[in-house]
What we know:
Elements (H helix, E strand, L loop, with lengths): L1 H24 L4 H22 L3
Amino acid sequence: MNGTILSVLMLAGIALTGGGIYSLAKRRDRKQSVLMLVAGLVMFANVAIMTFPF
């Protein structure tokens, strides 16, 4: 179950980061684009924290 959650988080992080970059490149809503990038980076950080061996 843990692997499935990490996989979904990675896919969502990739989608949010890619969407934010695409939206910034097309010069659409800047605030929404930055928030998408931040949300994607937070998801990557969560995956990194969850996979860190203690």
